[in-house]
Amino acid sequence: MGLKDKLQVFALEKLINKLCDIVENGTDEDMNTIISIGEKLTTDPLWKSAISGFKYRWEINHPQMHMPRKFMREIDPHVRRTILHNLIIKEAITGYRVRNKVRDEIGFYPPTFFVLSPTMACNLSCYGCYARSYRAKGLDYELVKKAIQEAKELGIYLVVVSGGEPFYWPHILRMFEDNPDMVFQVYTNGTLIDRAMAQKIVELGNVIPAISLEGYEEQTDERRGKGVFKKIMKAMDYLNEEGALFAFSVTATRYNVEEVTSDEFIDFLTDKGAFYGWYFMYVPVGKGSSTDLMLTPEQRGYMRKRIRLLRRDKGIFVADFWNDGDYVDGCIAGGRIYYHINSKGDIEPCVFVHFATHNIKDHTIKEALNSPLFRAFRERQPFHLDRRRPCSFVDANDKFEEIIKISNAKPTHEGAYEVIEKHGPFLRKLSEEYAKWLAEHDDDHFIRELNMEAEYSHNEERNKRLKKLYGKTVRDEALKRGGPEEIAEKKEERVAS
């Protein structure tokens, strides 16, 4: 970093500290001041768009403005400063500059985060969980240090920690302590978070636990074990009382999808102190996996619409890993936006894709990103023009099989091929049924997406930025493969028939 950049970062760090001082007062007028400062300082089109959207929601008192108020008034000051500093100074400014330089070196825009699964050991044994497929003892700390250092050299300052149960890994706190300039979101079952751990998480400031549950007590204990729900509730209470920033994580199945997307469930978790939430629909990965928990096409469509209604009406932000694909231009795997390092060191395209050609023990992250496996993912993305079907193996299993074959990728555990050999026919049929359901129930939304009229896709500056980074936008693909007029004609033909 040159002298000019260092001086700018120094000035911004001073500004962040000043903003944090303002935030601690916790008044709405203070937030107006922060928005005004942000508008004047920001030059990046993507951040300008984000601030503009936030300002609009603030002015109309959108329900989601509960989150910034909670952030100002209830989150511990040290956590607040650390998260703001690391996300703004490190991720949005330092990381962005590094990623642009790396792009010139490797020929494509590098990922913005990665998922690390340092161990697959867990104190629970949940039905359908892929973690049970791995038998590795876990990563040595020196390998994790190598992985994190290489990530920073790519401009990455956000790490998602998964597993197994991350808090079972003996080096977990050391990793957080050694990297105070990063933000770690940790998917955890919550059962190992007691009062002392909650206090340590606040002391560190750079850790955001995302606690997994399956619904209320009956659903959670049925899949995770008797008494687990009560332990989760205790963990949330400890985190909330100590001023930690934490989230929730839900796996939606055909048996709980209505419960976990209900207004009452979201209100319940908001009252418990959760700041945001992640939804994942159950998918059959791992040895001995089954499709019996998967959502039907109708349920997937229901979940998709419910998530949008929750975002519109509730004071908490929720995101859907699969069904929000149209907001991120489809699949984000293969190094396009992220990659995964498993407990054996294998560098996988996605946390749900258990195939690899490179290992962190013998290769660099850059080498893995430029491997035939990762390139094959990026070359085929998006897997469908309709980004509401973004996933390679769930929504485009035939293309997924092709990628694995041409790249000569090897399974990272016994039973990984089941997603192709055992479940492939079922997944392909399910994908076709979901496409049909979308066509029959949601054409108008798709047409708006292609016309750039949806909530995010209409933003001209965002699409300019996407095109600069990735070389194409939704609109480009629409024009190349058939635009909205053609789709509208097909809809009219179907209605007429």
Automatic annotation (TrEMBL):
Task: Output the InterPro entries linked to this UniProt entry.
Answer: 4Fe4S-binding_SPASM_dom (IPR023885), Aldolase_TIM (IPR013785), rSAM (IPR007197), rSAM_sf (IPR058240)
Q: Where is the Radical SAM core domain?
A: 107-313
Q: Name one GO molecular function term.
A: metal ion binding
Q: Which SUPFAM superfamilies match?
A: Radical SAM enzymes
What are the alphabetically sorted keywords of the record?
A: Iron, Iron-sulfur, Metal-binding, S-adenosyl-L-methionine
Q: PANTHER family under this entry? A: RADICAL SAM SUPERFAMILY PROTEIN (PTHR43524)
Q: What is this protein called?
A: Radical SAM core domain-containing protein
The organism of origin for this protein: Candidatus Coatesbacteria bacterium 4484_99
